Amino acid sequence: MDPLEQQIAHAVNVDPSPEFVARVRARAATEPVIDRARHWPLAAAGLAAALGVAVCVQHSDRERTANSVAAVAVVHQAPRLPSPPAVVERVEPARVPIARRQARNTPEVIVAADEVRGLHALYDLMRNGHALIFEDNTDREPIDAPSLRAIVVAPIQIAPIALASTVTEGVEQ
Amino acid sequence: MHELVGRLASSVEVDEELEREFEVRLVESSTLAFRVAYSVLRHREDAEDVAQEAFARAFRSFRQLRDRDRFRAWLVRLTWRLALDRRRNDRRRETRELAHAEATPLTASHSVDASYRSHELWRAIDALPDKLRIALVLASIEGHDLAEVASLLRLPVGTVKSRLFLARQRLKEQLQWIR
After folding, report:
1. How confident is the model at residue A72, as a pLDDT?
2. Which residues on chain B are in Cβ contact (under 8 Å) with A21?
3. Cβ contact (<8 Å) for B56 and A14?
């Protein structure tokens, strides 16, 4: 054996005290043996609780999202416009709950949740007589707002694309 | 009721069997765990504490460690890690070692006695990367051949061989001047 290896072996091969094994034995006697098979009901209960919490959190989150997006303010019947000549694609709000939409016959206007809260607060103030609304036209030019009837959606006409002949284009080789 | 009593009796039998197996492992691996801890801590009482803690943890999950090779490999890894943690956290040891280093300054006329050699050897071993160090320590323990070290480290024999070669080469380079 190499002298260096001898030196290392001499340094490493130190024996523990004679009482060491007895002390380990005594310590082990106080330790509980973990048996995973006996603890499966506890683990299953923990897993079920975690799943329940996850489902609740997801559900409340979904409801909160729906409420914030689909805050609905009911307005009076808008003046009926003449039907436009061209087909206009109607965009449906994606997250409005179906049951709520079916229950109402009046038109719905989608407004952001914070704006709805602000409108409600203003409405309450007015109803209790704490706020009055005046038209402020002292400094501004009156806005020449066009009436809804004046807005005309011009019909869109799409001409069919003429099929180009592949023979006439390019140079024949 | 009868079935419940039967199941309890069989569970007590299994526990007793487990304890007997653990006793066998304890007797055959106690020195190994102690030496692994000692090679990091170089303090007998601390090494015994760490090895004892490792055995206690091994006992707690002994049902999963009943295989002899698996148990010994697990014990070595755990003891090594616990010893490193202990060393890292032990501020008193650092102070003591610092005081020792200050008391024995390096001079040209310093006599290269056995304790000084040992001190320098451990310093060189400590400077080795972990992978090389544990391979060197395990291979230096009495009765360990390459196959045993490979089994303890869960590595191929060739990998252990190359790590040992590298470790010894680095030690020779570092300790050349005191040999």
Report:
1. 47
2. 26-27, 30
3. no
